[in-house]
Design goal:
The complex is a heterodimer of chains A (339) and B (430). With 339 residues, chain A is mainly α. Chain A contains 16 helices and two strands. Chain B has a five-stranded mixed β-sheet, sandwiched between helices. A three-stranded antiparallel β-sheet of chain B has the order 6-5-7. In chain B, helix 8 runs antiparallel to helix 9 and helix 15 packs antiparallel against helix 16. The chains are: A mainly alpha (339), B alpha/beta (430).
Chain lengths: 339, 430
């Protein structure tokens, strides 16, 4: 700033001091509160310093890295858009996007449905409801690596999963050895981990619905089904939207489950048979830390950023549309009139 | 005391602390790249099971015969990744580090490590297995890695099951009946018809891996040319596919719960793998003790696994570090590490020692050293390029696709070659 002012200032004196005066003169009114509040700014600076070092710098550096060829130790070589060019012609990358979305869909739809059911159950008057809430939340804070190893025995050919199938009279299923088995297994692990979390969010949403609405519905003679579909679900819409958005963000970053479950004996993880479990982030990891193509890995990271951005835009449009026509309030208005 | 003053002091103190921490993060690395800078000892990084913990407990207090030298071991979970991070940052690099059997992947950056020959390693060469010694020498001739253990391989098999199937079951008989991979598969066909539901191999990837390790050439040659599409690799691929076609494979990945169960229940009756699998099979199939035997591997001797020690260029005391390496990995301590950890020595002179010649109950009183000793000495000198992992990953992927998803083997081979060439060309291999 001072330098820019110095070069820009039409001045007769040696320009550095002139520039300084100029800057301080223009910033005079702003400057004094800044100086007065300096201790406050200093007090909150540790966060910004750490965020700059561990948050901003890696983001900027990865963008820089995606235009380089680097194996992690040697010197970097500028390659322009080559990494992105390779990426667009990389069939495994496109497959990883498809896989990610398939696993996301397979996991999110049943997960949100299950979470809603659990939230309804938790919302009713039951004993030990606090204990249930804790129990449902525990999967979310369990070590994913440890759990994946446990799930490895569940999905084994002679594992718990197939024992259960046999017990109910069904045949064996190739949980980890067939194309769809791989995806279903990964989806089950995601469902297991996130159902309780989403159930608690739905529960909070349910508890925020005013009791008058239920009363009004009852006075109007609504059946419990009508109450569910005409009162509860419309009121829950913003909460549902929130869970859909967070599940999308988490779903696009599926990694640990696939990496640990399908680790090959040489330490590499390429996502199991047919690479059906190869997700975007797993491919990033494999290219960067397995093949030591850090530039390529960074390019995959930025491609993922674009995909997430597109997703966010779609979500934003959805939010905006819900804002325009508010079915929940219009129905509430009807109840009010009836009253 | 005035509250405002103490508050200001608190703020100043916390800011000062953050600043000092940040300075410390950068400042330390600038003055010296070694993680042991400012301490009274040298550091050695290794992963669980790579080095003898008892010997490291000794060197922590003082390396015997080297007054004043202390070396402290640090068990690092992801040694490779942490080392890479340190080397890239030129900070917090250990003085000495263990490198795995993929030591060649560091050859493009051999300047990060000291030439052990310049520290006097060449005078020790005759004590070590030649192929193992060669494995630590970069194409430029600099020796960057010193032999720890090795992984001579053998054919492990269930004598009781082979007996029941009417197959040759004494180690020497079987070695002669299954001297080539084709003969081994013929044994497997008889096994399958006599004992339905019993398989010769766990998976076809193991056939590919072990047969390729018998070859001096791998995926990339010394001139950095891709040779993975040539006959020496294709033959191993064909052997793997053949074992599937003849229904000799249990189609179970190594190291999975299914694999452990299959060995424990005798569904997989033999395995070609390294000496370190002795520890694994004794654990997973403890109840089958006494039923196992080992003999020469079909197709000849080969090595699978085994690690190295290297001294980084950031080492504060190269001479002391080499003295430590010499002490830790000399024949006497290689023997001690074998007894403690099962690390198979790379110094053949100790193979005659009584401690190595003890009969093993798990193998029905057989002396495993009678098989693994000669295998270690006969294993070929193999040239591993820095890119073997990059090139082999798609091949193993496609073998899995063939085995589990029934993919056409010819198409799978073409896809594997295309994927390997693509990754390698991106890494600058022609």
């Amino acid at each position: 700033m001072a330098l820019a002012g110095a070069t820009g200032a039409p001045s007769t004196k040696p320009s550095v001091t002139a520039g300084k005066e100029r800057v301080s003169a223009t910033a005079g009114r702003l400057g004094s509160p800044v100086r007065r509040n300096l201790p406050v700014y200093l007090a909150i600076s540790p966060f910004y310093v750490l965020f700059a070092v561990f948050g901003v710098f890696p983001v900027v550096f990865s963008l820089y890295l995606s235009f380089q060829d680097w194996d992690g130790i040697g010197t970097m070589r500028f390659v322009g858009w080559q990494q992105y060019d390779w990426l667009l012609h990389d069939s495994v990358f496109w497959k990883s996007i498809l896989n990610t979305f398939e696993i996301w869909f397979l996991s999110t739809v049943p997960m949100l449905f299950l979470a809603l059911v659990i939230a309804f159950l938790l919302n009713s008057q039951i004993r030990y409801s606090m204990a249930y809430r804790v129990a449902y939340f525990i999967p979310n804070v369990t070590s994913m690596v440890a759990m994946t190893i446990v799930f490895g025995s569940v999905f084994a050919q002679a594992g718990l999963g197939n024992s259960l199938l046999k017990a109910v009279g069904l045949g064996e299923f190739g949980w980890m050895t067939s194309a769809w088995g791989v995806k279903v297994s990964l989806a089950i692990m995601i469902i297991w981990r996130w159902t309780g979390y989403n159930a608690l969010i739905f529960l909070a949403g349910l508890q925020a619905i005013p009791a008058e609405l239920y009363e009004a519905a009852r006075v109007d003679g609504a059946s419990s089904r009508q109450t569910l579909f005409r009162v509860v679900l419309p009121q829950l819409r913003p909460v549902v939207l929130f869970t859909v958005i967070t599940s999308s963000i988490n779903g696009l970053q599926i990694f640990t489950e696939s990496q640990v479950l399908f680790q090959a004996s040489n330490g590499y993880s390429t996502g199991g048979p047919g690479q059906e479990g190869m997700t975007i982030v797993l491919y990033l990891w494999q290219k960067a830390f397995g093949d030591h193509q850090f530039g390529y890995g960074a390019a995959i990271g930025w491609a993922l950023f674009v995909i997430v951005a597109v997703f966010a835009a779609i979500n934003w449009r959805l939010v905006a549309r819900f804002g325009e026509d508010r079915p929940a309030t219009s129905r509430r208005g009807r109840f009010n009139r009836a009253r | 005391m005035e509250p405002s003053l103490s508050r200001r002091r608190l703020l100043a103190a916390s800011l000062g602390g953050t600043g000092a921490a940040l300075l410390g993060l950068t400042g330390c690395g600038a003055s010296s790249g070694s993680v042991s800078a400012g301490t009274g000892h040298l550091s050695v990084w290794y992963w669980s099971g790579a080095l003898s913990t008892r010997l490291l407990a000794v060197s922590r207090k003082g390396v015997p015969g080297v007054p004043g030298l202390k070396v402290e071991g640090a068990e690092i979970g992801d040694t490779y990744g942490k080392l890479l991070t340190g080397l890239a940052a030129r900070a917090y690099v250990p003085d000495i580090t263990a490198l795995n059997s993929d030591v060649a992947s560091f050859f493009p950056h051999e300047d990060q490590f000291l030439d052990l020959n310049s520290l006097g390693a060449d005078s020790l060469k005759s004590q070590y297995l030649d192929w193992k010694w060669q494995g630590g020498i970069a194409p430029s001739g600099r020796m960057i890695a010193f032999p720890i253990d090795c992984g001579p391989s053998a054919l492990y098999y269930r004598k009781d099951i082979f007996d029941k199937a009417g197959l040759p079951s004494a180690p020497e008989e079987l070695a002669q009946a299954a001297s080539s991979w084709e003969d081994y598969f013929a044994v497997g066909r008889k096994l399958r018809s006599a004992q339905p539901g019993t398989f010769l191999v766990g998976n076809i990837a193991s056939v590919f891996r072990m047969s390729l390790l018998q070859s001096r050439k791998q995926f990339v040659d010394r001139d950095n040319r891709f040779i993975g599409d040539q006959a020496h690799v294709k033959r191993c691929w064909d052997l793997a596919v053949e074992s599937l076609r003849q229904k000799l494979s249990a189609k179970i990945n190594d190291g999975t719960p299914d694999s452990n169960a299959a060995y424990a229940q005798g569904r997989i009756a033999s395995a070609c793998t390294a000496v370190w699998w002795m520890g694994g099979v004794k654990q997973t199939a403890a109840k089958t003790s006494g039923a196992w035997r080992v003999t020469r591997m079909p197709g000849g001797a080969a090595n699978y696994g085994g690690s190295y020690l290297a001294i980084t260029k950031y080492c504060r005391d190269p001479k002391g570090a080499f003295e430590f390496v010499k002490w830790l990995l000399g024949p006497a301590n290689q023997l001690a590490a074998y007894q403690e950890m099962g690390l198979f020595p790379s110094t053949p002179a100790v193979y005659d020692k009584p401690a190595m010649r003890e009969p093993d109950k798990f193998f029905g009183g057989q002396r495993p050293i009678d098989v693994f000793g000669p295998a270690a000495q006969q294993a070929p000198v193999v040239y591993f390029s820095p890119y073997e992992g990059n090139a082999s990953t798609p091949v193993y992927q496609e073998l899995t696709n063939v085995e589990l998803l029934g993919k056409n083997p010819d198409k799978a081979w073409r896809d594997a070659m295309a994927a390997a060439e693509k990754t390698l060309s991106q890494k600058g291999v022609r």
